[in-house]
Amino acid sequence: MEQTKQELVIILPEGMKDVPVRIVRDDQSDELNIKIVNLTETRKEKSPSTEKQHVLIWHQNEYEHLSLDAIMWIEANSSYCCIHATENRKFTMSYPLARIEERLPKSQFIRIQRSYLVNIEHVKKLAGQSLIIGNHILKIGEGYKEEVLNRFIFLGVRGSQPREAKNVK
């Protein structure tokens, strides 16, 4: 007789995690050591990410595939946007920056001023009031500065001296 791999899953409410479980098969009784599994985490591991990682950009009468990781920054210019990607690729489209920003993951992209949306993975440096991406300097708008700075962890001294030390005499 061919054996098939079978599994019995018992789902207990949160409050019953310490209740012993006993399995009875015919006239045999077995105590079980139970491994508690967080069902939510198990589902996350097994299911693919729901966050999309690729875009199709309308370019020269067809859609061109681009990984989100390849987008360095997006620049608004009047009613057009220019997507600056790795390998010196640029895509110009008649599509508002606000609509693009809505569609991209906020964990990866941040608005640094009215005209720029930046992939934080491509930020090389923060210099004064600007971010350096590749060989390009993109100025951070005054209204966006606090939000941009809050997206990074700063190690070492920021400014002439640490904030805590300023009021010490």
TrEMBL record:
Pfam families: LytTR. PANTHER family: STAGE 0 SPORULATION PROTEIN A HOMOLOG, TRANSCRIPTIONAL REGULATOR-RELATED. GO terms for molecular function: DNA binding; phosphorelay response regulator activity. Residues 66-126 form the HTH LytTR-type domain. SMART domains: LytTR (SM00850). This is LytTR family transcriptional regulator. It comes from the Bacteria.
